[in-house]
Design goal:
Length: 186
């Protein structure tokens, strides 16, 4: 009887050990993946400055904090901005409209109608968001800037580059330019 109890107890330990060690951080023997140099969102200030030596989503290595916004000045200049390689065709505009309505219209709206605060009149903005009307904002920016803003996001805007292809983002830029023309005609 005692032998059966010891055998059952040993079997329980063997079966239970895999689940215990997998779910509890107290019994994890390999900790090198957790204690590496990385951004931990629970640490104060970790989302403001990326660690020196980390790689951004577009492959740039952060070597210092002074040049991390160089892309912004490059995209704001008409001489050095990234050019739109996708011509504004019916196919491009249709795909751009579909993607814009999927990812952008919920915050930026599809019309030039504004709420009482001057932002796009959308349900999201009525809940306190601060997304501008896209056709009011976009004429000041180059196609490359809008493309990069879609891809990497901003202070409040989430990055859409994860969910879209490069062609999709250029198609959205073409559709945004069409919205500007419609806004000018109103």
């Amino acid at each position: 009887m005692k032998r059966k109890i010891i055998l059952l107890f040993g079997l329980f330990i063997l079966i239970g050990a895999g689940t215990i060690f997998g779910k509890s951080s107290l019994f994890v023997w390999i900790t090198d993946m957790y204690n590496q140099k990385s951004i931990k969102p629970q640490e104060e200030g970790s989302m403001i400055d990326f660690p020196i030596g980390s790689v951004s989503t577009d492959g740039r290595i952060y070597e210092n904090y002074e040049n991390r916004f160089d892309w912004l000045s490059r995209e704001m200049s008409p001489k050095t901005t990234t050019r739109n390689p996708i011509k504004s065709s019916a196919e491009s505009l249709a795909n751009g409209e579909f993607k814009y309505k999927t990812y952008c219209a919920v915050c930026h709206g599809i019309t030039s109608e504004a709420n009482e605060d001057g932002f796009a009149k959308t349900q999201v903005n009525s809940k306190g968001m601060v997304a501008p009307i896209i056709s009011d904002l976009s004429p000041a920016f180059s196609d490359g800037y809008i493309y990069h803003k879609i891809r990497y996001g901003g202070a409040v805007m989430p990055p859409i580059g994860i969910a879209t292809t490069s062609k999709d983002r250029w198609d959205i830029v073409n559709f945004v330019r069409l919205l500007e023309k419609k806004h000018d005609q109103e």
